[in-house]
């Protein structure tokens, strides 16, 4: 059990971690740090009972905290590490919830010159198109995956403590390398988000958009759900992982060009094979979920 | 009330029309026509109580039918019209459930030399990634949209009768031109299906596909749901509406190229604006659903 959990970034993810930790009795006290301008949001988190207290001074927020989780958009992590650095405690456990891992590791390296061995990079795979602490809930991570990407020097005890924390709030914890994490997530999450943003943006600019949207079926609603995700968060993710995302965009365009050419040439059999291959691949995906 | 509803193509859509019509008491008898090789499926439909009887001879199936609905993949419609032609009744109402309308109109024109005034082209917008009569249900069209695309010579009374039929099984009926229907559906349905097929196909061919699928979150599942759709049906739709789909694929690739270039150039503000525009467009779409 932790004495004091300090959440930095009390949005959907940070708020849900706090709620889940409290629901499972994993810490005695939950505090949050935020900048002055975020005071209304922090007050809301306190009013909702998500956190016990909040501070706009980092030293007060970190005081006696033995678990610190940074749940801000990945683009602001470096400035957070700069704020924390003077108060870094060798006995506390530090982690994050960033959707990209190489950028987070670079950010902490840029500030410390190395990655402290009590910082454990982590990523809860629990997307939601809603954002903000009012959307947070204690069940968000239940039956979801949490990926830890330890470095060579990461303290195994710190990894173990963080693993236990996430398992207790219902997640299934895996470990992989930073690079592998970013490659896999570019495919399953980052590229699909870009496709959804691109599609809704394209259709939204058409003259007949009202009618297009009016006659869209449930499939379209599901398909575009992730286009309702937080633009700030996704801007950060896309820039942070562009080295993996850009090649995937190019591969996807080639895939589309292939289908386009098959259509132009009326290549029925090859189109049928393409669609069938995809349907079977999705079935393999569904089978994986059942494992 | 119709005396005898004849369904041609007893899959998800045809089966659901039959079930809904029976549930609402819209016809005295429901029969189906199918080819010899589809006998097991027709027997299943009969065993499930979806239809009262089935025939592998078109003349027997059409005998005394006063409502005939063709719910086969659009690519087979012309051969169906050829089968029906000798038994065409001036007093019956004929319609279809094809996802593309220009191709259906061309098919019937090719067979009859014109479009009979008692044929009313229609399209229930009720997608489902499942297929087959065992997936059919009486509620499939409830609160869904049904688009009728009448031609200049279509009998207004036939349109009215078909409208009433679909309204009674719970659909909200609209009318638009054949061309407009195909343009709108290319954007909301055909392109998204191609994107989903392309994405799952691309990822399914990657060496690390097992891991990619393992770490995919709920967003990916929703996003790719439509990639589980019936390949035969979608092959037909894509070929039937390629004149609308091909330009959309090109526009979508240009949209992706734009995002790709913004990423390459680290154009944060423009990326943020792109994602924000898309999120707002999706909100307009959701607002449309609430209307």
UniProtKB/TrEMBL annotation, chains A, B:
Pathway: Amino-acid biosynthesis; L-tyrosine biosynthesis; (4-hydroxyphenyl)pyruvate from prephenate (NAD(+) route): step 1/1
Residues covered by the Prephenate/arogenate dehydrogenase domain: 3-291
GO molecular function annotations of the record: NAD+ binding; prephenate dehydrogenase (NAD+) activity; prephenate dehydrogenase (NADP+) activity
Catalytic EC class: oxidoreductase
PROSITE patterns: PDH_ADH
Keyword line: Amino-acid biosynthesis, Aromatic amino acid biosynthesis, NAD, Oxidoreductase, Tyrosine biosynthesis
Gene Ontology terms describing biological process: tyrosine biosynthetic process
InterPro entries: 6-PGluconate_DH-like_C_sf, NAD(P)-bd_dom_sf, PDH_C, PDH_N, Preph/Arog_dehydrog, Prephen_DH
EC number of the protein: 1.3.1.12
Keyword hit for Membrane: no
Catalytic activity: prephenate + NAD(+) = 3-(4-hydroxyphenyl)pyruvate + CO2 + NADH
Stated family: Belongs to the prephenate/arogenate dehydrogenase family.
Protein's name in the database: prephenate dehydrogenase
Organism: Methylomonas lenta
């Amino acid at each position: 059990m932790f004495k004091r959990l300090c959440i930095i970034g009390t949005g959907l993810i940070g708020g849900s971690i706090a709620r889940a930790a409290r629901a499972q009795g994993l810490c005695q006290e939950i505090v949050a740090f935020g900048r002055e301008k975020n005071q209304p949001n922090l007050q809301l988190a306190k009013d909702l009972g998500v956190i016990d207290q909040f501070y706009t001074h980092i030293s007060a927020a970190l005081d006696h905290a033995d678990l610190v989780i940074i749940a801000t958009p990945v683009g602001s992590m470096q400035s957070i590490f700069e704020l924390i650095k003077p108060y870094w405690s060798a006995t506390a456990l530090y982690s994050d919830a960033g959707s990209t891992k190489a950028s987070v590791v670079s950010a902490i390296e840029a500030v410390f010159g190395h990655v402290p061995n009590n910082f454990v990079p982590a990523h809860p795979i629990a997307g939601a198109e809603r954002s903000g602490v009012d959307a947070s809930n204690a069940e968000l991570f239940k039956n979801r995956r949490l990926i830890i990407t330890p470095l060579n020097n990461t303290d195994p005890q710190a990894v173990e403590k963080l693993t236990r924390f996430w398992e207790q709030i219902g997640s299934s914890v895996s470990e992989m390398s930073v690079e592998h994490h970013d490659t896999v997530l570019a495919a399953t999450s980052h590229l699909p988000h870009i496709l959804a943003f691109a599609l809704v943006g394209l259709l939204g600019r058409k003259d007949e958009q009202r009618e297009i949207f009016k006659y869209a079926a449930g499939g379209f609603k599901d398909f575009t759900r992730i286009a309702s995700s937080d633009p700030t968060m996704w801007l950060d993710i896309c820039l942070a992982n562009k080295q993996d995302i850009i090649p995937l965009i190019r591969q996807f365009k080639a895939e589309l060009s292939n289908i386009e050419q098959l259509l132009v040439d009326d290549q029925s059999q090859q189109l049928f094979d393409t669609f069938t291959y995809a349907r079977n691949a999705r079935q393999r995906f569904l089978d994986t979920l059942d494992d």
